[in-house]
């Protein structure tokens, strides 16, 4: 006789849990405990007095697919239930294939549930007993698994076998498992970065801007020539630019001093207009007719002396780049 019972497998919300086990993927183990027979009836045996609690034990093996899901198979001898008033007994043994779902309760302890199917062999032994049977039926169980270290764990578990040749058999026992085959890839250590400092020297920039006689107005053409100074002022915060105005010797010394300052200020204003920088980085001076570069006795010489000299001193620029330490 066979009974059909609908079973709802136990499931745990484990997809986001952290598994207590090691990263080993394979395991084997053994378990021992007691089996309990229930739902014995006359269709199985004509006697009613039977030892329904018996010693049981077996072995199992599994593959840890993920940290929370495993596939497991095993063999369990569920005991030899003796008849109290007849010469005979019923022996049951099963081989099961189950899925195992685990949830980490602590860093070393897992709570798990498993469900699957088993093949049973139900043997009537002795006179006055009958109904040998074998076949497939569903099974489910639950337990606790404590990981002693990354290779060894202990289990306390319960498993229900439905319709083992008629009766249902429940198993409760203690087991041990050995784990091996770490599949976790070796993770390279994170690189250590250090600062590499490179010093680049920017050469001195020089430019002389000419002016017409008695004029302090810079032309559009000469304004366009200020671009290298503007870029350096924008890009290098430590840069300073010296703007020094000059004249020829026509006119009084005082007049020429003021004119040279106006010329320098005109160039400085053009730099500030395009660079938009702090005024303290542009130093303006007027030196009048005191520093000619040519003779004031000729028209050509006086034209060369009517000028503004723009100077940006050389500067060392540090560039910091992160590189991997050797």
CATH topology of the largest domain: Porin
Domain module tally: 2
Q: Please count the beta strands (DSSP E, at least 2 residues each).
A: 14
The percentage of residues in β strands lies in over 45%
Unreliable spans: 1-19
Radius of gyration: 48 Å
Please identify the oligomeric state: single chain
- Mean pLDDT, all residues: 86
**Count of runs of 4 or more consecutive helical residues:** 4
**Main sheet record:** 8 strands, antiparallel, barrel
- CATH class category of the largest domain: Mainly Beta
CATH architecture classification of the largest domain: Beta Barrel
Distance between the termini: 76 Å
Structural class: mainly beta
- Elements, N to C (H/E): EEEEEEEEEEHHEHEHEE
Q: Order of strands side by side in the largest beta sheet?
A: 1-2-3-4-5-6-7-8
